[in-house]
Amino acid sequence: MNTLQLDLGERSYPIHIGSGLLDQSDLYRKHIKGTFTAVVTNETVAPLYADKVVKTLEGIGQKVKLIVLPDGEEFKTWEVLQKIFDGLLENSADRKTTLLALGGGVIGDMTGFAAACYMRGIKFIQVPTTLLSQVDSSVGGKTGINHPLGKNMVGAFHQPQAVIADLDTLKTLPAEELAAGLAEVIKHGAIADAEFLSWIEKNQDALNKCDPAAMEHAVRRSCEIKSQVVAQDEKEGGIRAILNFGHTFGHAIEAGMGYGAWLHGQAVGCGMVMAADLSVRVGLLSEAEASRLKKIIEALHLPTQPPKLGVDRFMELMSVDKKAEGGEVRYILLNGLGQAKIQTVDDDLVIQTLIANGVV
Ligand SMILES: NC(=O)c1ccc[n+]([C@@H]2O[C@H](COP(=O)([O-])OP(=O)(O)OC[C@H]3O[C@@H](n4cnc5c(N)ncnc54)[C@H](O)[C@@H]3O)[C@@H](O)[C@H]2O)c1
Ligand SMILES: O=C(O)C(=O)C[C@@H](O)[C@H](O)[C@H](O)COP(=O)(O)O
Ligand SMILES: [Zn+2]
Question: What are the binding positions for NAD(+) in this chain (predicted)?
Answer without folding.
Answer: 71-76, 105-109, 129-130, 142, 151, 169-172
